[in-house]
């Protein structure tokens, strides 16, 4: 009987499904964050997040939510369980996008109005450095080994590689017009920079010492869609570095790209003005924010098909999922 009871308990334990992750969506015009359940895709709640919330991320332990409240000139920090605002972080003017160090400290923030990247200590809530970059800094990425932070400047049309040890720019790579987002592959060997007006994704090879080299540009063509509507913005690459997904803005599509050949395989139809992307931790699903239809699209990564649309707040912009 003892062994039977033990076996029954073990079976029950193994059969218990993993807890759902929370999906946080920043609503730029609604001034809120919507919270979804990643199992049911139901809306759990919506809470105030300051004026014009855009960039959004979570701490490595999943306990803190960071939101760029762009029109408040600050970063607001919330508890991911209670949704209560805990404190703010200095950000410089008009914070739009940011990236956390893999350790959770510091936070690197793009300040579009002042042409700066502000480095903030998330523990002491103080500014560590202000790094002058190109005109209208926007996208922020960080290498997996945290050697370099990359900022993209929309008007200068460059990707700036900032050394995290001394906050000096060590490399500049010219890309196409209005670079929006910078995404490293998990192994750090490749950086992808999307250019909204240029309509391309720059593929930048990264040497072992971190030196970048522009090797290829990915272009897009969709029958029936005007070329000027093909505006690459958010991008995410799978952990196995095989598939790159790129949000194409007013084209209302996510491009599916073979990351080994840089060839576009397909286009997934989404809501209107698809902007940013986020994987669930297991990379089973990809969530898109669709600003003009006020919804998110859930994409099954294996089948590369959109499976569900969920209404959120007014003009969803950014999205992040809590880690396991």
Describe the structure.
The chain is mainly beta. It contains 1 helix and 28 strands. It has one helix at 2-15, and strands at 22-27, 32-37, 43-48, 53-58, 64-69, 74-79, 85-90, 95-100, 107-111, 116-121, 126-132, 137-142, 148-153, 158-163, 169-174, 179-184, 190-195, 200-206, 212-218, 235-237, 243-247, 253-258, 263-269, 274-279, 285-290, 295-300, 305-311, 316-321. A hairpin with a 5-residue loop joins strand 6 (74-79) and strand 7 (85-90). The longest helix is centred in the N-terminal third of the chain and has 14 residues, at 2-15.
CATH topology of the largest domain: Methylamine Dehydrogenase, Chain H
How far apart the termini lie comes to 36 Å
CATH architecture of the largest domain: 7 Propeller
E-strand count? 28
Proportion of residues in helical segments: under 10%
Q: What's the order of the H and E elements?
A: HEEEEEEEEEEEEEEEEEEEEEEEEEEEE
CATH homologous superfamily name of the largest domain?
A: YVTN repeat-like/Quinoprotein amine dehydrogenase
- How many H/I helical runs? 1
- Large-scale geometry: globular
Please give the oligomerization state of what you see: single chain
Return residue spans where pLDDT drops below 50 for at least 5 consecutive residues: 1-16
Major sheet details: 4 strands, antiparallel
| Count of all domains | 2
- Mean pLDDT across residues: 94
Spatial ordering of strands, largest sheet: 3-2-1-28
Compute the gyration radius: what is it? Answer: 20 Å
Strand content: over 45%
């Amino acid at each position: 009987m003892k062994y039977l009871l033990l076996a029954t308990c073990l079976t029950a334990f193994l059969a218990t499904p993993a807890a759902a992750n929370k999906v946080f969506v920043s609503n730029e015009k609604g001034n809120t964050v919507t919270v979804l359940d990643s199992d049911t895709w139901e809306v759990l709640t919506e809470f105030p997040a300051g004026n014009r919330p855009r960039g959004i991320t979570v701490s490595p332990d999943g306990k803190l939510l960071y939101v760029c409240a762009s029109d408040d000139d600050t970063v607001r920090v919330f508890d991911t369980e209670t949704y209560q605002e805990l404190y703010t972080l200095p950000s410089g003017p008009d914070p739009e996008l940011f990236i956390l160090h893999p350790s959770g400290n510091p936070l690197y923030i793009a300040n579009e109005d002042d042409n700066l990247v502000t480095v903030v200590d998330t523990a002491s809530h103080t500014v560590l450095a202000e790094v002058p970059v190109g005109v209208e800094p926007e996208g922020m990425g960080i290498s997996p080994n945290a050697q370099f932070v990359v900022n993209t400047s929309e008007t200068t049309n460059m990707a700036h590689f900032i050394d995290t040890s001394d906050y000096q720019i060590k490399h500049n790579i010219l890309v196409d017009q209005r670079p929006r987002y910078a995404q490293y592959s998990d192994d750090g060997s490749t950086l992808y920079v999307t250019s909204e007006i240029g309509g391309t994704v720059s593929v930048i090879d990264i040497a072992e010492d971190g030196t970048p080299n522009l090797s290829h540009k990915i272009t897009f063509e969709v029958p029936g869609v005007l070329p000027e509507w093909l505006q690459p913005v958010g991008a995410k690459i799978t952990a196995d570095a095989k598939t790159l997904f790129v949000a194409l803005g007013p084209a209302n599509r996510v491009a599916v790209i073979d990351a080994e050949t840089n060839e576009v395989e397909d286009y997934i139809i989404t809501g209107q003005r698809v902007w940013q992307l986020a994987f669930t931790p297991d990379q089973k699903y990809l969530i898109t924010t669709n600003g003009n239809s006020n919804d998110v699209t859930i994409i099954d990564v294996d089948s590369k098909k959109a499976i569900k649309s969920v209404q959120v707040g007014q003009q969803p912009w950014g999205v992040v999922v809590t880690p396991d």
